[in-house]
Amino acid sequence: MSTLDLFEGLQTPTQAIESLAQQACVLRGFALPFVEALLPALDSICAAAPFRHMVTPGGFSMSVALTNCGRLGWTSDRSGYRYSAIDPTTEQPWPALPTSFLALATAAADAAGFPDFVPDACLINRYQPGARMSLHQDKDERDYAWPIISVSLGIPATFLFGGHHRADKAQRVPLFHGDVVVWGGEDRLRYHGVAPIREALHSVLGAQRINLTFRKAG
Ligand code: MD3
Ligand code: FE
């Protein structure tokens, strides 16, 4: 029996899919049955590849701290944004994608109608109160046909879901511990961001929000 089979029992009950747009949806609480497996794996990743505040090409330090796991990791510095197989801080490969992470990502993609999704990159963002992410598009991946899966853990956030132009009015979508959002197709290149995180305490994660985004980057 493969390790992945151990997670096949972790099925959330059939649930309403909350639609945000034609090919974007929220699966409320979808990650909850996986959390017990995700958190120790997250601790191991952060021990090997610590959270750090990267610098943007414009020279600003990001308020969100990040790390990665999987074959490719997203990085930023003065010379640009890119995916890299090597962590610039440790000069080692990023930690492997844990089986529990992979099981959650593929199950969520399946539930949202994107079969055969095998991510090679998991960006792990850490938001402490006050941290935010301004409106941007995700354009650093090779093939925009693959969806992006986002998993929210810890204190709540207001996700900003915009249009195809930066000036388009953004919908505000509250996201809570365990929520999963899936974006694909025509919605894959929408502008999006995260409003400044409000002070709060989560019983397990404390005063932070952790967001996992799974992608096929390479
Ligand atoms: C909608 N992260 O890392 S994840 C990012 O909560 C990022 O940390 C946010 O945006 C976070 O790039 C939002 C959800 C997300 C990711 C990619 C998208 C939403 C998206 C691509 C297109 C549209
Ligand atoms: Fe993004």
Automatic annotation (TrEMBL):
UniProt binding sites for Fe cation: H136, D138, H192
Binding site for 2-oxoglutarate: N125, R126, Y127, R209, I210, N211, L212, T213, F214, R215
Reactions mediated catalytically: a methylated nucleobase within DNA + 2-oxoglutarate + O2 = a nucleobase within DNA + formaldehyde + succinate + CO2
Binding-site residues for substrate, renumbered to this chain: W74, Y81, R82, Y83, D140, R166
Cofactor binding, note field: Binds 1 Fe(2+) ion per subunit.
Keyword Repeat (UniProt): no
Domain Fe2OG dioxygenase: start-end pairs: 118-218
Assigned EC number: 1.14.11.33
Record-stated family: Belongs to the alkB family.
A biological process from GO: methylation
Record has Cell cycle as a keyword: no
General function of this protein: Dioxygenase that repairs alkylated DNA and RNA containing 3-methylcytosine or 1-methyladenine by oxidative demethylation. Has highest activity towards 3-methylcytosine. Has lower activity towards alkylated DNA containing ethenoadenine, and no detectable activity towards 1-methylguanine or 3-methylthymine. Accepts double-stranded and single-stranded substrates. Requires molecular oxygen, alpha-ketoglutarate and iron. Provides extensive resistance to alkylating agents such as MMS and DMS (SN2 agents), but not to MMNG and MNU (SN1 agents).
Superkingdom of this protein's organism: Bacteria
Keywords: Dioxygenase, DNA damage, DNA repair, Iron, Metal-binding, Methyltransferase, Oxidoreductase, Transferase
SUPFAM superfamilies: Clavaminate synthase-like (SSF51197)
Cofactor(s) required, per the database record: Fe(2+)
Record's GO cellular component terms: cytoplasm
Protein name: Alpha-ketoglutarate-dependent dioxygenase AlkB
Species: Pseudomonas laurentiana
Molecular function terms from GO: broad specificity oxidative DNA demethylase activity; ferrous iron binding; methyltransferase activity; oxidative RNA demethylase activity
